[in-house]
Design a protein that fits this description.
Blueprint lengths: L3 E7 L2 H8 L5 E9 L8 H4 L7 E8 L6 H10 L8 E2 L2 E2 L5 E5 L2 H17 L9 E4 L3 E3 L7 H4 L16
Parallel strand pairs: 6-7
Antiparallel strand pairs: 1-3, 1-6, 2-3, 2-8, 4-5
Helix pairs in contact: 3-4
Length: 166
Amino acid sequence: MATEKTILAGGCFWGMEELFRQQPGVLGTRVGYAGGHLVDPTYKDLGTGKTGHAEAIEVEFDPQQSSFDAILAFFFQMHDPTTIDRQGNDRGSQYRSAIFYTSEAQRDAALAMIRTIDASGRWPGPLVTEVKAAGPFYLAEGYHQDYLQKNPGGYTCHWVRPDWRV
């Protein structure tokens, strides 16, 4: 079976991981750090706001069960892509909205969807989601992996909003 991966950032990775793991076609998720310049960053490093990294999730999916467009559409339902460096109470560049594409087809799809969403008028302002080629993805510390599975009452600033395509 051929699988595909993408790396998405949209605020705290705990909530993103929990919501994505329930999506059709998603085979696995891992939380980590992407988009920055520091090699092998830690959670403590990200807290400084100086690494350039965002909290992100790597999503592995079966494109026969769920298209990349479907993955992106859900991504835009489960976070606010109009806030710069913020999701809920979480503030800082590590909580920015970003798509780290792993192929030119993913890049083209991401840019097209952002244009479509902006044109729809469903959000109160323009999308600020960064679209950038995936570089190294650094796994977060073990206690972050599957965090909300291990801590069901843990913090999350994510929820599924009404579908913007309706």
